[in-house]
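Journal club prep, notes for RB
We'll compare a predicted complex against what the paper describes. Inputs for the adenosine-5'-diphosphate case:
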Amino acid sequence: MPHISETAIEYLKGVGPQRAEMLKKELGIFTFGDLSGYYPFRYIDKSKFYKINEINSDVAYVQIKGYIDKIEMIGGKRIVRMTARLSDETGTIELVWFNGFRWLKDKFKKGQEYIVFGKPTYFNRKYNITHPEVEIPDDDNAPIVFNLQGFYNSTEKLKSKGLDSKGISKLQKTLLTEMKGFITETLSSDIISNLKLIPREDAIINIHFPESKEILHKAQLRLKFEELFFIQLKLLKLKLVRISKFNGHKFSIVGNNFNDFYHNHLPFSLTNAQKKVIKEIRNDIGSGKQMNRLLQGDVGSGKTIVALMCMLIAMDNDCQSAIMAPTEILAQQHFENISNLLAKTKINVQLLTGSTRSAKRKKIFEQLENGTINILIGTHALIEDKVKFKNLGFTVIDEQHRFGVAQRASLWKKNNIPPHVLVMTATPIPRTLAMTLYGDLDVSVIDELPPGRKPVKTLHFYDSDRLRVFGFIKKQIKEGRQIYIVYPLINESETLDLKFLMDGYDSIVREFPLPEYAVSIVHGQMKSSEKEYEMQRFVKGETNIMVATTVIEVGVDIPNASVMIIENAERFGLSQLHQLRGRVGRGADQSYCILMTSHKQTADAKKRIETLVKTTDGFEIAEADLRLRGPGDIEGTQQSGILDLKLADIIKDEKLLHYARKVAIEILDKDPNLSNPANALIARRVAELNKEKTNWSRIS
Ligand code: ADP
Ligand code: MG
């Protein structure tokens, strides 16, 4: 017999076919279980009322008692909004509706006292509340009223069917009365007693109808833990499956290629962080299981050499290696660097990109198949079907965020035994985020820069200081340095963006005229051969200034460039600013990053600029970024779905997340298949969650 939580939502008293349809469409609620899992997003303290004159910008939500004495419909033939004036003995505030007001407007009565709940916003020098919840205070036949009342997110369509927050709350009441006694536990008794959690049923009831603040907190803790725990369990299981399913190349020897390079050709000594990471990778690739590792290291931390040394181990074990970079410029640069490092060895390194000539291409294909090529460096061109290796054992993917998962996987398909994969990223990912997003990968971190680097000095200037900045640029150029000037993509339209850039370019050329100065320009709408040409002029030092959009963001290494000027810096995200700053500070001279902004900035933009001026630590910046933007907006996370947490917040609940992961690891260590009777409840929940996930396809 199906469990009560699987009962279709139309069978709940008070729902019926129409409302059921709406609940499915609007909120994805199909079953009793779905509804009981639809938690309030905040709680209103029903004992607390604000006076209208107490409202200020610090209060997020207010509850006011008052009278409505004036209703206005605004707009001509087509009414665009309705306003109502709410008054109490201290003042008045305007209530505003932009839609859904037709069925509301006749409901208000003069002289009737209402309770209004909503979020006050400051507009036109006064406060108003848009789309408030309005109710008539009831005294006699009121249901049991707790001080804390759950407030549910609803939609205009649901509200028009009477399912505003209060309506949903009523349904929850009916539902929980029916489900009481049947809400099953999902955690083992060990976990529950170790963590002193309350039972699941108590948690669900109290998350909807808390009898006190204390029990609400217990309910939240219990449900947050559960949420994080099952995500971690899923990710860790994925990893277990990967490790057990794919038999990887076993690199058991560290031989001549590695040792010769290490002792005779390495131009510097490795940092401790680099040594540590090479050791971690060696452990993986020597184990016979396929490695899937994320290597994080700030710009300039020396990831390339780590990758190279691992590729030499692959060679020592008769395997080929490949590096895949996101752009031709970067692939080219890797190729030059690595060729230089290996110049005195017999190792065969080749470059394959979209612009490799066909004769050369043919030769590369041949040599790949007969095993003459040891290391192949390239762009997306590497994953074309024609590219066949004799024995690919190690793959490096640089600047990971430009590559999709599918592209990563297609590299594996080329071989009977999948190669080890090292994903390198210079965009630091906060630990908590990495744990949820890449919980199935192993993570290594290079947390130390090579010695002797001078941190980039970061300065903030307003547009009105431009002449001083130009003066500074001239001085730097006189000393032989080169300058980047970067413009944002504003995304309103490509032509406008280009115009913005070209205007900037024109004014730079006017200020820095030939023949004394030479200025390069690179932007996204140029052909790649043109870009390449301009880039090369700058690399060779033929031009002093490079004016560009963010196309230069990733990886380019020009040690002589010592100044990075970012125009409209307030328009860039934190991690992007940090990436751009990483383009300078690679040579022996003091480098500078100059952030240009207008005087007008949002509070968030100010924070971003302040953070960047204050620190050069990529991880600190990534954490700040996460805090400012929230996890949903961090690059690459939107699609993952993994961060659609109902209750937990990976920033605020960081400790709980670590704990949940620890518990999940302990359980899987002892019982990888969850077949131990003590874990039966957990196993059942995992199966249920998998089923729920497939059911979601009903919606999309
Ligand atoms: P990223 O991690 O940004 O890819 P790279 O691998 O390009 O950094 O290295 C940046 C620069 O630092 C390169 O010029 C490289 O030769 C140099 N480098 C790397 N490791 C060391 C080290 N241990 N000591 C000195 N210089 C190093
Ligand atoms: Mg790099």
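Talking point for the session: The pocket of magnesium ion (ligand 2) is lined by residues 303-304, 398, 555 (CB under 6 Å).
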